[in-house]
Design a protein that fits this description.
Elements: H1 2-34, H2 47-61, E1 64-72, E2 78-84, H3 87-100, H4 102-107, E3 113-116, E4 123-130, E5 135-143, H5 152-192, H6 196-240, H7 249-263, H8 268-279, H9 290-293, H10 301-307, H11 310-318, H12 327-333, H13 354-369, H14 380-389, H15 397-407, H16 412-416
Antiparallel strand pairs: 1-2, 1-5, 3-4, 4-5
Domain HD-GYP: 224-418
Pfam families: HD_5
Keywords: Coiled coil
Amino acid sequence: MRYRGVSDDLEYQLASLKERHRFVDKVLDIVLRLNDFSFVSGSTVSREVVLGETLRRVKRLFECSSAGFYLVDDEAAFSLARFEGDGGRLEAERKILLKDGSFAWALNRNKPVLLKASDGDSTVLLHAMSTSTRTMGMFLGIMNSDRGALLDSHLYFVTVVLNSAASVLQYLELFSMVRGLNEDLELKVEELTKSERELTLYKEDLERLVQLRTSELADANARLGDTVIGVVDAMGKIVESRDPYTAGHQRRVASIASTLAGMVGMSEDEAEGVRIAGLVHDIGKIAIPAEILTKPAKLNKLEFKMVQTHPEAGFDMLRSIVFPWPVADMVRQHHERLDGSGYPKGLSGDEILMGARCLAVADVVEAISSHRPYRPGLGIEEAVLELKLNRGSGYDPKVVDACLELMEDPSFMERYLS
């Protein structure tokens, strides 16, 4: 019975890990579609799909005559895993880059590296595929000599996509390893249950194996959590890349809102959900023309109506993801007000989630205090005045009082608005 309990616990952990797998697949789908990838369902995500879709899009964007991915193999060497075009040309360029040290130099930079090709006419594009913990490989593309000038948005795109692809490749590798470990463990348990005598002989070995596998599964779950946060953060950065004036806005709102959530009595886990919602609360702005987002003057009525669509657009993008928290609903409600004067639904009172109320206060404090295209930052004093004037009508009184207390801290600006 003791070992049955251990096995049940491991099955529960494996089920949890598989659920994380499905969750990351859905987040990946959002990132892929945001970058104009074709639809990839959770059941079809594989190393070949990730490499193929990523290579096809990046090669087309940069108009490469040949392009490929060099992945790190078991012997820490780089081998050509997937390519389009002339593989021999890619190999010849790689040997030259290895010899002059350019290949190794590019591995240490998390941004595109552009070099003259050996023919003296074409351009070689190098970009490492890296996660926060390891380098998965290198992209090598040869751009035609008649290709036009590269835009900053092109270079930013390739960094976001290749680093996201690296995170997914690491995740798939990790999940395959854990699945193999679990199958090995299940086989061992089946053998040991054949007889009581064999169970006695193997019990010490099984205990060590269970402890090892439990530790590995816990480590896998922790690393998968980091992958999820990294992908969510990448989603937020895609929005902010279109509007340099609000760069860092979502991160600052997430920090303030999650702190307020804890101060008004939400649990640590609920506050983490508020933080995740804060990181992507303006994701819907990707559907709004950049000219409106960066307009250096007051918006007209039609332009403001377009901006008001972003909470609903964000909800539509996020609702298919099974977050452990109501992230999509909080994103949709972060511009609602207690008296029903907000948008997009005109919700009031208890119809608005507490997490969304925290986001609303954090959003207005950050917006008033920070610079915008049409005005300089108005400062903390204006933010305090706004909260006091609309306490109880627009904003939740408990959240306002918590925020006013937080803003009395002399380090508030440095900790939350820098």
